[in-house]
Amino acid sequence: MNRDDIQLIAFSDIKLSKRRRAHVKGIIPITGIVVVWGPPKVGKSFWVFDLCMHVARGISYRGRRVHQGTIVYCAFEGQGGFEARAEAYRRQHMPRAERGEHIPFYLQPHMLDLINDYDALIGAIKPYGDPAIVVLDTLNHL
Fold it and tell me: Suppose 117 and one of 10, 61, 73, 112 were both cysteines; which one would form an S-S bond, judging by CB atoms 3.0 to 4.6 Å apart?
């Protein structure tokens, strides 16, 4: 920012924004970083996947408003188990007629070195616009 861009706002002109503040009210902000942390094998990845599918589909999550958006899910532990998880989600939560519809959810199934591969990852994401959420699962393997 250069000094010519700095503008002061009068107190009387400061108004509460009507912009959305969350992708999932009270859980996932529009801007920011969320860390889901806990012991191994307690269902963190299942919970994050379920929450992200609600955002991708634009359906309320456990009674909380959702702002629909594109999801990029980086499954750094590989896609083997993820395919089964996605199929189980389809069968459990999606009517048969809806299963073929486009859902803005994209899987990146390869282990990446985010220090060296971030340009390639960003390049892969760009054609899909600005994602609402990018999931990096699991960080302990990075």
Answer: 112
